[in-house]
From TrEMBL, chain A:
Name by which UniProt lists this protein: Ribosomal RNA-processing protein 41
Native organism taxonomy: Eukaryota, Fungi, Dikarya, Basidiomycota, Agaricomycotina
Gene Ontology molecular function: any one: RNA binding
UniProt cross-references to Gene3D superfamilies, sorted A to Z: GHMP Kinase, N-terminal domain
Domain Exoribonuclease phosphorolytic: 22-151, 155-218
Oligomer and partners: Component of the RNA exosome complex. Specifically part of the catalytically inactive RNA exosome core complex (Exo-9) which may associate with the catalytic subunits RRP6 and DIS3 in cytoplasmic- and nuclear-specific RNA exosome complex forms. Exo-9 is formed by a hexameric base ring of RNase PH domain-containing subunits and a cap ring consisting of CSL4, RRP4 and RRP40.
UniProt entry keywords in alphabetical sequence: Cytoplasm, Exosome, Ribonucleoprotein, Ribosomal protein
Compartment(s): Cytoplasm; Nucleus, Nucleolus
GO annotation, cellular component aspect: cytoplasmic exosome (RNase complex); nuclear exosome (RNase complex); nucleolus; ribosome
Pfam families documented for this protein: RNase_PH (PF01138), RNase_PH_C (PF03725)
Taxonomic superkingdom: Eukaryota
GO BP field: nuclear mRNA surveillance; poly(A)-dependent snoRNA 3'-end processing; rRNA catabolic process; U4 snRNA 3'-end processing
Species in which this protein is naturally found: Wolfiporia cocos (strain MD-104) (Brown rot fungus)
UniProt record similarity statement: Belongs to the RNase PH family.
Location (main, coarse): cytoplasm
UniProtKB/TrEMBL annotation, chain B:
Origin organism lineage: Eukaryota, Fungi, Dikarya, Basidiomycota, Agaricomycotina
Coiled coil: none
Swiss-Prot/TrEMBL GO biological process terms: nuclear mRNA surveillance of mRNA 3'-end processing; rRNA catabolic process; rRNA processing
Protein name listed in UniProt: Ribosomal RNA-processing protein 44
Region feature Disordered, mapped onto this chain: 333-355
Alphabetized UniProt keyword annotations: Cytoplasm, Exonuclease, Exosome, Hydrolase, Nuclease, Nucleus, RNA-binding, rRNA processing
């Protein structure tokens, strides 16, 4: 039957001390890595994902190039020690392929690929540590890494997972909760209010789904603010480093919606 | 709109917030587990009007604490540690013990880890109205969270956490009440750590935390006298070692540590199972474990090693050369050990006892037969105790002083009512007043040095054989919840009370929405006499096309009992209505059960109807389900309906409807029997009560079964099967169904052997159809009751039916063996069974009448509810049976005073020193024991009583006459049925 640990106790606390709608600590690190054009390490609690973006660059295989837009190539690697059980996953592992496919289909409509005809954008995802919410971390890290690579995006994509315990929706599930609850992952583009991805692997009643879906969308906006703050901080740091601290990109227009042009300005 | 926030966890806190450990899986893999937790500053302290905590609206602890304890004149709040709840739950639950209390999360989790029943009681305690308990989530508050240090045991870590919380509370109180300038500082209430752990107390003293032992705390309370008896016996580490204790002999082998046990079970050389005591022989028990066809026998005290009925134990199975057959002897603990002294002077009496027991054991195995050998083994550890409170009598012979005014502490024996339990030793000052009463006793501990478990007195139930005490003890023994319904539950009833009526038909009325108007149908109900909760009614009428329309109308309970309100939760916890001979413990408040939902005649009622179109041969053409409004035309007893049906002068609509139903029912039954349904028998007797008020039984009679019983039964079965199919189709994952697994063939081995050897009748058990046919052939022309007897014995070989959630088991195990139906559920008695209420909700959703409540979509939830319902159902059956037994005893006594009762009986089992017989007229089983040596042939199932002129042989299935008396046990005052053989031989002198 159910696990020995209470998912949501009578005091309204989850097993890790959060309440229903509290997200785990988010950490976004955009320091450059090697020769990558854009890079980000994002952690949600103990789940940590690194994404490196190369491109847009000339496609390696001529046959796959498209004359009017860029080709997206997503590769996912899961480090053997990332999960509790030490396990090597090959590239052809079905779960990994599915993860890559989900990331690709999430970003295809968001990246303005038509700006980069006959080129290729490579997204390399490596999962460093897993404690639930893997897909959400991959998508969020990819979002930030693409932004740091200066690739034109319609918006930052923000993903968050949610589950239902009895009749109570919970947000941002840990691995323990994921194992016990029906769960969804929702990715949205907050500026346009569009939903780019919804996954649901278990059966869930439609009423419960509606509720958790609505909460996840709201949570997406919260993550969006966090991402913007990180991107802005990184940008201003770079601008400062270049010694050209032009005013106007500073803190005062936090409220203005972020535009990719801002990041691509420098 | 709710607020969504991110919990920030500074990296510097990682030491406290991250936990890493390694875990080994069942397959031996090592898994790294990383967990994190978020520490917060908004965990509320729970003290009323605290100036620091923001959310103190729900706080329950009085700001001045409790001023009632003489030790703490400035006010105090208690903070008990885990052991207090593990050992002293009865005290904690007492109405006399209610200081404001802080319950730490650490403590709750430890209790949950150690014992689930105690955890559930703890949870009930938190919610109880008369208690003031605040749950403080100390592990999530940044100041009180602790981490395990290098080399620290989990226990020490928890104790440290508890101390830390206690000292935090005291600091918090002083911070929240900084002295106001110009006012004299008010004395602050203090948080007192309640613990029986001496080491913990010493550490707390060093850290400046107020702490006190439970005993000391209780002793200085006002009602200390009554409360002290509730204290469980102190552990030996707490008492000064006296000479007697030090010299005490070790009687039982030590248990292995749990980790070793679990490892052993994984590796396969140990086995785990429930311990079952043998009711005939207290020196024998068995454990059914997977891997062995037959249960593993545990013979003798040392091998049973302090296991108590229901405990989950780990056992070691002996080498096959040591396997034995179960003893064929009746060994009664009271007679064998009647000279045992409760005041523990073990050494002297010890040898005698062991010798007596050893003799019994050896005698039992003088003639081992290869055929009946069973694996044997011994208990080497306890996985989980399943101790609860037991109904007992005080053994008068164990009292040192029976002077009624004596208040000296005595150690006495309490003999449990259930024969499956050992005697319990307990210390009390009230012993003389408790003599002749039924009392509730809890087992606290069972040491290696103690022959008997030690327990403490919980409360008295009343005089033995007073009906109230017997009734309550029955309910307690079978764990039946019998408290009156609380206010929150009664508030869920319709506000009109008993004036509620079906509103006039109109489109706007919510009651009439999507309901069919069936008020004109000729519907009637058929029930046992005096039935107040009528939950089913029937109708049938011919259709113009030659087919027949038949309908079953069930009380629409789900209209009144809405999901997840207090009434629904209570009904789910009760699971079923319990019927005792003279009392009914309702699942739902009486207003619903016997009035608003009861389909009384000539009253409009809401119903849930199943309506079939059947061919005259009872083939289903179609079936539909609908909510409806009906007005039953009449309510018959089985007898009235039978008379009406058979009376050729009556030809009214109702009578014709009954005849139509009856003709269909006969065809339905024939169809079922052809499909292999079993016609099983269980001993059913009826107690005739003198009058409703005095409820003195005057006689026992066997229940009569009429054609109309079968009529109702057939249609209920048909409705249940139809509904089962419908809800399974609509909700394949969570449909509430009922199944009856086919019994393993080994269950029948003994019966097959007996039948073959004694009567030369083979019994084929390969399928239910074959078994049914085979049972039909078990007839003895000279003895009509023989067939019934075999059926009763066959029924005992079967498994019991159970509710299950359709998504939880494989599709091919859905079948109902006894009914030979591929799918089955319970739909027809929602007033008295909770599973039916769930089925009603699912059916309503399946016909799109109403949406299905979220909880019924959750497999885990349905499983959890059905687990409870299954257990309650089993307990209710046993309670009902025990109640009948009690009244049979009373009736026998009444009879015995007049003439002494001699009845015919069948032998059902032979022992080395006796016979077990079944008295079919009374539906009771009894034992006849012989004091003199007799010859016993276990392979032929016979005993031979030698005598000077001619010896007599008695075998299983033989008909004998027994004299039945009710004899009062001199020590415990409990009445017990005593049987002696009258013919073929008179055993009174044997
Ligand atoms: Zn406070």
């Amino acid at each position: 039957m159910s696990s020995r640990i209470e998912i949501l106790n009578d005091g309204g606390y989850r097993s890790d001390g959060r309440r229903q709608y509290e997200l785990r600590s988010i950490d976004i690190d955009m320091s450059p890595q090697g020769t990558a054009d854009g890079c980000a390490v994002v952690s949600h609690g103990l789940t940590q994902v690194q994404v490196c973006v190369f491109g847009p660059r000339e496609a390696r295989k001529r046959a796959e190039t498209l004359h009017d837009r860029a080709v997206l190539n997503v590769e996912v690697g899961v480090l053997p020690f990332s999960a509790g059980e030490r396990r090597r996953r090959g590239r052809a592992d079905r779960r990994i392929l599915e993860l890559a496919a989900s990331i690709k289909s999430t970003f295809e409509p968001v990246i303005q690929t038509s700006l980069y005809p006959r080129s290729q954008i490579d997204i390399f995802v490596s999962v460093l540590a897993q404690d639930g919410g893997l897909l959400q971390a991959c998508i969020n890290a990819t979002s930030v890494a693409l932004a740091s690579a200066g690739i034109a995006l319609g918006d930052l994509v923000c993903a968050v997972s949610g589950g239902v315990h009895g009749t109570f929706p919970l947000l941002d599930l840990s691995a323990l909760e994921e194992g016990d609850l029906p769960n969804v992952t929702v990715a949205i583009t907050p500026r346009s209010g569009k939903v780019t991805l919804v996954t649901l692997e278990t059966r869930l009643h439609v009423d419960r789904f509606g509720e958790v879906f609505a909460r996840a969308c709201e949570a997406g906006r919260v993550i969006h603010t966090e991402m913007r703050r990180a991107v802005r901080a990184r940008t201003s740091k770079l601008v400062d480093a270049m010694g050209a601290g032009t005013k106007g990109t500073g803190e005062e227009d936090v409220e203005r919606d972020v535009l990719m042009s801002e990041i691509n300005d420098f | 709109m709710v607020e969504i926030t991110i919990r920030k966890r500074p990296r510097t806190e990682a030491v406290v917030t991250q936990r890493k450990f390694f875990k080994k899986t069942a397959r031996g893999k090592v898994i790294k587990v990383l967990r994190e937790r978020y520490l917060r500053d908004d965990v509320c302290c729970g003290i009323h009007s605290c100036s620091i905590c923001a959310d103190s609206a729900s706080s329950v602890l009085p700001s001045a604490g409790s001023l009632n304890h003489p030790m703490f004149p400035d006010g105090h709040i208690v903070l008990p540690d885990t052991n207090v709840f593990l050992a002293q739950m009865d005290l904690m639950e007492s109405n006399l013990f209610n200081p404001p209390m802080i319950l730490l999360q650490t403590v709750m989790e430890e209790v949950r880890h150690r014992s689930l029943p105690l955890y559930n009681r703890l949870k009930a305690l938190v919610k109880a109205d008369e208690k003031t308990v605040w749950v403080f989530y100390n592990e999530y508050r940044s100041e009180t969270a602790v981490i395990r240090e290098e080399g620290e045991s989990p226990n020490d870590r928890n104790d440290r956490g508890i101390r830390k919380s206690a000292s935090w509370y005291n600091t918090h109180i002083s911070l929240s009440r900084l002295p106001v300038r110009g006012q004299a500082a008010r004395p602050l209430p203090m948080v007192v750590l309640l613990t029986d752990d001496v080491a913990n107390r010493q550490k707390a003293d060093k850290e400046g935390i107020q702490c006190v032992s439970v005993r000391k705390y209780v002793e200085s309370m006002k009602d200390s006298g009554k409360l002290l008896d509730l204290l469980s016996t102190p552990g030996s580490d707490d008492v000064e070692p006296t000479k007697a204790v030090a010299a005490r002999q070790v009687l039982y082998p030590d248990y292995l540590p749990l980790s070793t046990l679990l490892a052993g079970i994984k590796s396969g050389h140990l086995h785990q199972g429930h311990f079952n005591a043998n009711q005939y022989n207290y020196l024998e028990g068995n454990v059914s474990v997977s891997g062995f066809d037959k249960p593993v026998l545990l013979i003798g005290r040392e091998n049973m090693n302090r296991a108590v009925q229901g405990d989950i134990v780990a056992i070691e199975v002996f080498d096959e050369s040591e396997w034995k057959a179960p003893a064929d002897e009746v060994v009664d603990q009271e007679t064998t050990l009647k000279n045992d002294d409760a005041e523990e002077s073990e050494e002297e009496s010890d040898d005698k006892k062991t010798i007596a027991e050893r003799r019994v054991l050896q005698a039992g195995f003088s003639k081992p037969q290869a055929s009946a050998k069973q694996p044997t083994g011994r208990v080497i550890g306890i996985i989980k105790r399943n101790w609860r409170s037991y109904v007992c009598h005080i053994d008068s012979s164990s009292l040192t002083s029976s002077n009624a005014t004596s208040l000296s502490q005595q150690t006495v024996f309490a003999t449990p009512v259930s024969r499956l339990l050992p005697r319990i030793r307990l210390r009390t000052r009230q012993a003389p007043t408790l003599l002749g009463q039924k009392i509730l006793v809890t087992i606290d501990r069972w040491d290696r040095t103690s022959r008997y478990p030690e327990g403490h007195f919980v409360r008295a139930l009343g005089n033995v054989e007073s009906k109230e005490a017997e009734q309550e003890s029955l309910l307690l023994e079978f764990d039946v919840p019998y408290r009156p319904f609380g206010k929150a539950i009664l508030d869920c009833l319709p506000s009109e009370g008993d004036r509620w009526v079906v509103p006039p038909k109109s489109a706007s009325s919510p009651e009439w929405r999507d309901r069919e108007d069936l008020r004109d149908l000729v519907i009637c109900s058929i029930d046992p006499p005096g039935c107040q909760d009528i939950d089913d009614a029937l109708h049938a009428r011919p259709l113009p096309n030659g087919n027949i329309e038949a309908g079953v109308h069930i009380a629409d309970v789900s209209h009144f009992v809405l999901p997840d309100n207090p009434m629904d939760n209570e009904a789910a916890a009760r699971g079923t209505t319990v019927y005792l001979v003279d009392k009914r413990i309702d699942m739902l408040p009486a207003l619903l059960g016997t009035n608003l939902c009861s389909l009384r005649p000539r009253v409009e009622r809401l119903a849930f109807s199943v309506i079939w179109e059947l061919t005259p041969d009872a083939e289903i053409v179609n079936v539909r389900f609908t909510k409806s409004v009906i007005a039953s035309k009449s309510a018959f007893t089985y007898e009235e309906a039978q008379i009406r049906k058979d009376d050729p002068n009556l030809n009214d609509d109702t009578t014709q409807s009954i005849r139509l139903l009856n003709s269909l029912a006969r065809k339905l039954k024939a169809g079922r029997m052809a499909a292999g349904a079993l016609n099983l028998a269980s001993p059913e007797v009826k107690i005739q009560l003198d009058s409703a008020e005095s409820s003195d039984p005057i006689d026992v009679a066997q229940k009569e079964l009429r054609e109309t019983n079968s009529l109702v039964e057939e249609f209920m079965l048909l409705a249940n099967v139809s509904v089962a199919g419908k809800i399974q189709g609509a909700f394949p994952q969570t449909a509430v169904l009922r199944r009856h697994l086919p019994p393993p063939r080994s269950n029948f081995e003994k019966l097959q052997d007996i039948l073959q050897k004694r009567k030369g009748i083979p019994l084929d058990v390969s399928s239910s159809a074959v078994l049914a046919a085979s049972l039909d052939k078990c007839v003895d022309p000279s003895e009509p009751a023989f067939n019934t007897l075999v059926r009763i014995m066959a029924t005992r070989c079967m498994l019991s039916a159970e509710y299950f959630c359709s998504g939880s088991v494989a599709r091919d195990t859905f079948g109902h063996y006894g009914l030979a139906s591929p799918i089955y559920t319970h739909f027809t008695s929602p007033i008295r069974r909770y599973a039916d209420v769930l089925v009603h909700r699912q059916l309503a959703a399946a016909i799109s009448y109403s949406p299905l409540h979220a909880t019924l979509h959750s497999k885990a939830h349905v499983e959890r509810v059905l687990d409870v319902v299954n257990r309650r159902h089993r307990m209710a059956q046993m309670a009902g049976r025990a109640s009948v037994e009690f009244y049979v005893g009373l009736a026998l006594k009444a009879r015995g005073e007049r003439q002494g009762s001699t009845e015919e009986a069948f032998v059902i089992r032979t022992f080395r020193n006796g016979l077990a017989v079944y008295v079919s007229k009374l539906g009771i089983e009894g034992l006849v024991t012989f004091k003199r040596e007799i010859q016993f042939d276990p392979d032929a199932y016979t005993i031979t009583i030698p005598s000077s002129d001619e010896s007599t042989t008695i075998a299983v299935f033989d008909k004998v006459s027994v004299k039945i008396e009710v004899e009062k046990d001199k020590n415990t005052q409990r009445g017990r049925v005593k049987m002696t053989l009258i013919s073929p031989v008179d055993s009174r002198n044997l």
